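# step 3/5: fold
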Amino acid sequence: MTLETRDDRTLFFDLLPLSFKAEGDVSLRIKLFTVPGQVIHASTRKLVLQGADGVAFIADSQLSETENNRLAFLDLRNNLKENGLDLRKLPLVIQFNKRDLPIIRPDEELAELARHGREPVYKAIATRGDGVLETFLGLLALTWHRLDEEHDFSNKFRVRSDTFVAALARQLGVTGDPQRLIDAAVGIDPRSSARKEGAS
């Protein structure tokens, strides 16, 4: 959906529906919404967050946008709180987009953020598709893990996390091992399956 503004054409929100067929008659549906970060879309973001099972926070890598990123993250936290959701318990990944621009937060700084935070951090250049699937699959794995802990999905549906993520990755055109994409998060050694505590 798009919204025509005086200055340009702004994406109002996207919706990507995906589905997964488990054993028996069980079918799981995943709905991925994206919303823009401009202040005028605050009510849309709050509405979309109702009942969210996981969130990807997309930050702008440019140094000039550091304060706007901070304010947007506070807005996210407040919107979740008003919807009765706790950011500390919600699966969350952080993506730093626009890594191709000249004056950006350095890789070392992002690595430091990843070391001290509980959230996986991904680098991206969305215009080229770099880091986009990695971010989504990382969020998908975290979200399944939390829902599995809460609702015992693995036993109810006889589906393992890696099977679930791999099936959805194939729907998105991923031909290789999706775990390698997930392991592209900053601070994760791609040669190891080790995860930070709470992020598996």
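# step 4/5: annotate
Confidence is low (pLDDT under 50) at residues 190-200.
# step 5/5: archive (pending)
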